[in-house]
Design brief:
The chain has about 240 residues and is α/β, with parallel strands linked by helices. It has helices at about 25-35, 70-75, 90-100, 225-240, and strands at about 15-20, 40-45, 55, 60-65, 80, 105, 110, 115, 120, 125-130, 135, 140, 145, 150, 155-160, 165, 170, 175, 180, 185-190, 195, 200, 205, 215, 220-225. It has an eight-stranded mixed beta sheet with strand order 7-10-13-16-19-22-24-25. The longest helix has 16 residues, at about 225-240.
Length: about 240
């Protein structure tokens, strides 16, 4: 395998890693890996056959994730999930768990421009993108995405496989359940709970707890079913 971009400038003890997913999220992740020098991107695996044999920012796309055993034999021991999520984080969870079952170790990646408090606890496989903030006493589970310029304020607890999207803000002491999604630019008021698998729409202002599995959007945020039901009632009245 030929050297990848910036290999010559990295410390000799930096490990190599495989990136699971080859889309836009993976490109940002490769930039973060190179900037932080946490690991050298060695290969990308993606289910999309049209990407096989191509490169993502100079990193070769070797094939699908069925090649994980081959990469292990080549000496690769670390991985990061390069798949983002828009409301559904289950595909990211499956990739994460599959790589761990194969014996690979997930990497934590924090871009140098991000601010991660020394007292914060950040789980394996979690990525913190440029200009994001993870503040004092926050606890993040495994395989979390803290996207560009997102803010996790002090003492928040964020469950496994959560995506806090670009520019979203969790005010202090917010609890976010496993597999939840906080949309771009959303704001969650302090001391609230976002349930497991819940989705907060982009730009929402959340001022009360969101139950597990519920999608909310708007200002203030309301359950999608109630908003859409109200719109349907108005439509029927107007038709009548």
């Amino acid at each position: 395998m030929r050297p990848t971009h910036r290999q010559a400038s990295m410390p000799v003890d930096v490990p190599t890693c495989v990136i699971l997913g080859g889309g836009g999220h993976a490109r940002v992740l490769i930039d973060c890996l190179r900037a932080s020098e946490v690991a050298l991107p060695y290969a990308v695996l993606d289910a999309d056959r049209s990407l096989w044999g191509r490169e993502v920012l100079g990193v070769p796309v070797r094939g699908g994730d069925g090649l994980l055993p081959d990469l292990l034999r080549e000496g690769i021991r670390h991985f990061v999930v390069g798949v983002g999520g828009i409301g559904d984080n289950e595909p990211r969870r499956r990739l994460f768990e599959r790589a761990r079952r194969q014996g690979l170790t997930p990497l934590r990646v924090c871009h140098p421009s991000a601010m991660c408090s020394p007292s914060a606890v950040i789980g394996q496989g979690t990525v913190v993108f440029p200009h994001a903030v993870v503040n004092t006493g926050a606890r993040l589970g495994v395989n979390v995405i803290v996207n560009t310029s997102a803010v996790i304020e002090h003492d928040c607890v964020v469950g496994d496989h959560v995506h806090v999207a670009t520019g979203a803000v969790l005010c202090s002491t917010v609890h976010v359940g496993v597999l939840a999604h906080i949309g771009a630019g959303a704001v969650v008021r302090q001391c609230l709970t976002i349930g497991e698998g819940a989705v907060v729409g982009a730009g929402a202002a959340v001022v009360r707890d969101v139950p597990a599995g519920v999608t909310v959007f708007g200002v203030p945020a309301e359950p999608a079913d109630s908003i859409l039901g109200g719109v349907e009632d108005l439509r029927r009245e107007n038709l009548g």
